[in-house]
From TrEMBL:
The keyword Lipoprotein does not apply. Catalyzes the hydrolysis of the adenine ring of phosphoribosyl-AMP. The gene is hisI. Pathway: Amino-acid biosynthesis; L-histidine biosynthesis; L-histidine from 5-phospho-alpha-D-ribose 1-diphosphate: step 3/9; Amino-acid biosynthesis; L-histidine biosynthesis; L-histidine from 5-phospho-alpha-D-ribose 1-diphosphate: step 2/9. This is Phosphoribosyl-AMP cyclohydrolase. GO terms for molecular function: magnesium ion binding; phosphoribosyl-AMP cyclohydrolase activity; phosphoribosyl-ATP diphosphatase activity; zinc ion binding. Its EC number is 3.5.4.19. Its cofactor is Zn(2+); Mg(2+). It catalyses: 1-(5-phospho-beta-D-ribosyl)-5'-AMP + H2O = 1-(5-phospho-beta-D-ribosyl)-5-[(5-phospho-beta-D-ribosylamino)methylideneamino]imidazole-4-carboxamide; 1-(5-phospho-beta-D-ribosyl)-ATP + H2O = 1-(5-phospho-beta-D-ribosyl)-5'-AMP + diphosphate + H(+).
Length: 455
């Protein structure tokens, strides 16, 4: 099972012609972006199109041999931007076509700004040129649209914790949740100082990368999910999570005071080093503690109803629903409910956590790509959906390879080894399999020495 079919060339060419005819300014180029450009679309995905038009002075012809788009700032008259939406017929179904028109100067200027959905991380999003004026083709035929990372916004992070404390003291649970969500979206921009560089391609990809930063405060992922409203929690729990995020981030970034000074000024950087910032955070924390002691608010984000989806850790209780800590010895088996064929399940020899190792290889070359873990349900989903699905031991949740990165694995076959404790998954790999960007996770060669042969 592959991704949804990309609207064919005829469909895209037809829309390019239509947009050229209806544009109120001379058109420079038409680009496809979004999930279709990433080759990660489903049958319900929008077709996102950027239409680049001349600015008010008209498109200056590029200089001979020039490469890359112009870098002039938007004109004094202000940037031009317009949005249109259409429902178009494609292969017997309706498709939502979303068109964003922008003058070339402001479009280039926008690419130089951080993306507001990317949690402060740099963006490298694939694009596809549908049409371009001949004199502009070389300058706008960009395989990816890049936007820079945001600055480390420590000052805004601290100010937002103040808003959390103020809303908590004022008995405003909705204000607490809104401020905590803003705070969580700021955290990754500050933690970028202490983490390896990572680039993202989509909003979902950005969320996954923001949650999985390797250098982060204790409990960071859980606190982020609480603050973002992606995990149920009472208002007091959300406020406490916001406090832990900020007080945990500050010690990590203390060695980077010089970088903070370049963004927020020398006083905040000095306060980061001399202890004033810690004292200020202690004031805010005490205010949150007082609010927690006096508040009667017990509201919580409701748990999802049947049929709704939410990314939360799956239960480790046995299939029977009995408590996992019952004290009785339990033979290794499926830890979570599963629809796996019982005949297949009976042949598995699992670890004590109910997992089986999955070795993943490229189906036609045999190249070993990665090793991951599956439980019974992950194997069931892999066998029945055609998409490689694994169990994350660190996040305690299922993940579909490529769902956030676009580096999909389409399953060709699955084999069980003779002992039943390992799986060989043959896939058609799209892009790199390794989160580092390498084709295979096995790219580090170790030295091997052999004893010299003796007669």
């Amino acid at each position: 099972m592959g991704p949804a079919p990309l609207p064919d060339t005829g469909f895209l060419d037809e829309w390019a012609a239509r947009l050229l005819q209806t544009a109120d300014r001379p058109v420079i180029g038409v680009l496809l972006r979004g999930s279709h450009a990433r080759q990660a679309a489903t049958e319900h995905s929008d077709v996102d199109v950027d239409v680049l038009v001349a600015d008010e002075e008209g498109p200056a012809a590029p200089a001979a041999g020039a490469a890359g788009p112009p870098v002039a700032a938007p004109s004094a008259a202000g940037p031009y931007a317009a949005r249109r939406a259409y429902l178009a017929e494609f292969e017997g179904r309706l498709v939502h076509v979303s068109v964003a028109a922008r003058d070339i100067r402001s479009w280039v200027h926008r690419l130089g700004q951080p993306a507001d959905w990317a949690f402060g991380l740099p963006v490298t999003a694939p694009a596809r040129l549908i049409w371009a004026a001949p004199e502009w083709r070389r300058r706008i035929d960009l395989p990816v649209l890049c936007q820079p990372a945001d600055e480390p916004r420590l000052e805004e992070l601290i100010a937002t914790l103040g808003k959390v404390a103020g809303a908590r003291l004022g008995g405003d649970p909705m204000g607490v949740r809104l401020a905590a969500g803003d705070l969580a979206r700021l955290c990754p921009s500050v933690l970028r100082l202490v983490n390896p560089s990572v680039r993202v391609t989509s909003r979902r990809d950005a969320l996954a990368a923001a949650l999985d930063l390797p250098v982060a405060p204790p409990g960071y992922r859980d606190d982020m999910l609480l603050c973002l409203g992606l995990r149920p929690g009472a208002t007091g729990e959300v406020a406490a999570a916001a406090s832990r995020l900020v007080t945990g981030v500050v010690p990590l970034v203390r060695p980077y005071a010089e970088e903070i000074a370049a963004v927020a000024g020398t006083d905040l950087a000095d306060a980061l080093v001399d202890g004033r910032l810690d004292r200020y955070l202690a004031q805010l924390t005490r205010a949150l503690d007082v609010a927690r002691a006096t508040s009667r608010d017990t509201s919580a984000v409701p748990a999802p109803r049947a049929g709704e989806w939410l990314t939360v850790p799956a239960s480790d209780a046995p299939v029977t629903g009995a408590p996992a800590s019952s004290g009785a010895a339990v033979a290794p088996g499926p830890a979570r409910p599963s629809r796996l064929d019982p005949a297949i399940a009976a042949r598995l020899r699992r670890t004590p956590d109910g997992l089986v190792a999955a070795v993943v290889r490229q189906h036609d070359s045999g190249e070993v790509l990665m090793v991951a873990w599956m439980d019974d349900e992950a194997l069931h989903r892999t066998l029945t959906t055609g998409r490689a699905t694994y169990w994350s031991r660190s996040r305690q949740e299922y993940w579909v390879k490529g769902a956030t990165s676009g580096h999909h694995q389409y399953v060709r076959s699955v084999a069980l080894d003779c002992d039943g404790d390992a799986l060989l998954v043959s896939v058609d790999q799209v892009g790199p399999a390794c989160h580092t960007g390498h084709r295979s996770c096995f790219f580090t060669e170790l030295p091997v020495s052999f004893p010299e042969a003796t007669s």
